[in-house]
Amino acid sequence: MEHLRSSPADRPWTFLTNHARVLTEIARDPGARVRDIAAAIGITERAAQNIVTDLERAGYITRTRVGRRTRYSVDPSRPFRHPADADHPIEGLLSLFTDDHPPNRERPDGDLDRRAPSLPS
């Protein structure tokens, strides 16, 4: 019996990790509940909670209690964790996935706006 091997094209993969996805969801909505974050990216609440804890321990996010809810803030100046990317802050990644108006958009006068997009606070 011949063993069937799947080709790399047949295996599902993505460019972003779940940690990056949780971080961008928090940047999009700092008041999001863990269950909403989990649902938005297709992981379990437990996995989302573990990732939030990882991000907080590493200094990428801060949690603040506001009544019965939790509000998050993201530190966009933190570097990427992989040594090959550690000289870049996560701000660029967050801008790419959280800004409604991407950089290099056309301004009303026809020129391109090359300013870096702002991040939600």
Automatic annotation (TrEMBL):
Annotated Basic and acidic residues bias: 98-121
Region described as Disordered: 69-121
InterPro entries found in the cross-reference section: HTH_MarR-typ, WH-like_DNA-bd_sf, WH_DNA-bd_sf
Highest rank taxon of the organism: Bacteria
A Pfam family annotated for this UniProt entry: MarR_2
Domain HTH marR-type: 18-68
This protein's name: MarR family protein
Organism: Nonomuraea coxensis DSM 45129
